[in-house]
Amino acid sequence: MVGRVAVVGAGSSGLACIKICVDEGLEPVCFESSDDIGGLWRFKESPEPERSSIYRSLVVNTSKEMMCFSDFPMPADYPNYMHNSQLLQYFHLYADHFDLLRYIHFQTKVRSVTQRPDFSVSGQWDIVTINRDGQEQRHVFDAVLVCSGHYTHPALPLSDFPGYETFSGRCFHSWEYKDADGCRGQRVVVVGIGNSGGDIAVEISRSAEKTFLSTRQGAWVLGRMSSNGLPLDMTAITRLNNILTLLLPKTLVNWAAERALNHRYDHRLYGLRPKHRLLDKRPLINDDLPGRILQGALVMKHNLKGFKDSGVVFEDGTVEENIDTVVFCTGYSGTFPFLPPALTEGPHGEVTLYKTLFPPSLSRPTLAIMGLFQTKGPIMPIVEMQARWAVKVFTGLSRLPSREKMFDATESERKRNMKSYPCPRQAALQTEITHGKRTQTDYR
Asked: Whole-structure pTM over 0.85, yes or no?
């Protein structure tokens, strides 16, 4: 009988999991390594090891109407697209309204989560934590919800670029980036055109002497504002659009949508046109990138190939000299060092998860990893649904298929990803995203 549930992390996913456990009559105990809630959305002036880090100006890409929790609308005076500080404030309002803070142990780090000797019968877990005084504590839980986030270990592929050892400029990951003050008057290269890469390149271009944005594949760019001034996700993510996408030929839908985007600005002329079709990958959400290119403050470049003394070399053979700073927006490695190694080493080197939630290798389905997926819209409502399903499985009200069927389903999903992405590297990255090794890569 499931009673006590460990929740690892008190970010947006952790808060939703705590509340849903309480709703279902379970006893949640949340362990949060920092001294406050918010996880990724808690801005700190300096990045802290093994914790998420965001830049000062970060604004959400999904509207408040679409991203709020199902039972707690955001305040009416909030803007449609919030600054990170307002989203953090919303989490505090949510936690206060449902009295969630009393379930959270702050400044308590989870060191290990291991199956108990009788796991095949009980499904229970041994959890070792370290509190703020460095004291180790041991706990027994009936189930575990992992909500620790996956933007904590930056992927900085410097070794992939010859000459970086002798490069005279500075190289760092976007995890360290806070604002553009340190790049004022410099010549800067930003590597990667995911949402972080786009935001950071635009921000740096307002104060740098020259900013270059290097991309492997380009991106389809959409602004936050849609027709009639409404938020993009409110008009794009609808039942009607979903039905049309399913009924109409994918080639036709891609052609129509890409044609509409190119009417605003030709992606080829702007150096943005990607190799993939619009529906094959999430677009870049950025309001200002095309305008910065139009003004010449931001220059699109091919994929970074290597370094040369004080300059950088791109795959098309061009060289930019006197580069002061290179910012790598190259995503994160989704690692869970506290979990058993057997759960984090799938057959293809990734965390294998059934429906991006349950490790199918477990003999008892009493552990779920939250939020390891990509979606067209906001993540928070989907994590809330994940948590509701996970708790139903924990309590026996919902049952999972056999282990063999779950492995077959995850393998079929992997093969579909390989077919959808003709580029081998992109297919591998998408497989990692779907199965948990890397939840998002900005390096496009």
From this structure: yes
